[in-house]
Amino acid sequence: MKENVWKWGRQSDTWVYLLLAYPVIDYVLRKILPIPVVSSLWDDGLLLVLLLFTFLAYWKGSRDMPAIKHTFAAFIVYGLALTVADMANWDASVEGFRAVYQYMIAFFIGFYLLRDTKQLVVFLKVLTAFGFLAAVVGIMQVVLGVQTPQSWVQEGEAVTTRAFSIVTSPNVLGSYMALIAPVAVGLAVTTANRKERIIWWIVALTTLLTLLLTSSRGAWIALAVALFVCCYLWNKRLAGFLVIAGIVGLIGLYFVPESTPLIGKISNRIFTLFTPEYLQSSMQAGRLDRWGEAYDKMRLEPLFGVGLGHHGGAVGSRHFGTIYTDSYLFKSIAELGLIGVIMLIALIAMTFAYAVRLIRAQAGKPPFFLMLGLFGGLFAVAMHNLVENIFEVPFMSLYFWLFGGFLCALYADQAKEKRW
């Protein structure tokens, strides 16, 4: 038994699996079996262990990181400079730095620890399995009529019960499902085993249903945009038909009575966005007001922002009493300024650029749809950050950068093979 435990502990895969189980482990340690210190710091310890494996892999020098490493280095130095620039609020600055940069470490973990495509498939299956578990819990909440906290239900809407599962909110669950659903579809299309294909299709449909039950408009729109981009990469003509189908679907949805099960609630949730009441409430104390406030903060310090942890997130709320910006982009604009936001966007854009090159090189090969599905999920998460603070949630930020690192690693290997 001891030998088996020691054998598992020496393998980096074991620790990556724990990282992929993050939402479940964190929920158990915080809500069911709270252990002092461990419940708060277990993820920090897990990242430290994985960093040791990452350092060993880097030391062996089996893989060279492409040009994104320069942008990462510049962004990290920039963050350190912002941290020491405000010594009067040192605690907030350090905590703000940690909130932004700690989980980006997962990119390097993913880049150096991934061996090949086969290992990525295993990781994706584990990720999707835990996502399916969260999806089932979310569906059961709605079936059992678990009341959604009032802060997540907008006045005047028909929706009063929103799935939130084991994560912090319906919007976070929506983003989680928007990540998992395309991956499940990719697994279903890629596998040659009929029984396995049926299982992954069931997982995909379950996660999509849970996504609908979260009533997260931002996640819906983000996944729709990601679906269009994926279709465009696969078949441009199909992408055009998708746009037409989407327009026709929205027109039809407008005429659906609110009393219609599920569809009526979706219609109410979407078209509430275009009512004068929503616009007025959003401009007074909602998203538009918060985005405007973040923009005003940036205008005071356009290049460098007001400082890490000083506005629009959990750290800013604790130290300065600021409210959540409901947009990671606007939060970053206020805290990082234009220089920092440009570098952050560049990192995400470069990650997607490598992914697209990798996907195009796989056209006609078995891994194509798997890579496309993973890209679609990551793209949906990035898009959702425009209207939610998704990267404020540790496991969502970890997943984005970890799998971004995986895709970048495969791209680097592919580029190396071409050179040879």
From TrEMBL:
Its main location: membrane. One of its GO terms (molecular function) is ligase activity. It is found in: Membrane. One of its GO terms (cellular component) is membrane. Pfam families: Wzy_C. Keywords: Ligase, Membrane, Transmembrane, Transmembrane helix. The chain crosses the membrane at residues 12-29, 41-59, 71-90, 96-114, 121-144, 173-191, 198-213, 219-234, 239-256, 336-356, 368-387, 393-412. Residues 203-345 form the O-antigen ligase-related domain. InterPro entries: O-antigen_ligase-rel_domated (IPR007016), WaaL-like (IPR051533). It is a multi-pass membrane protein. This is Ligase. It comes from Brevibacillus aydinogluensis.
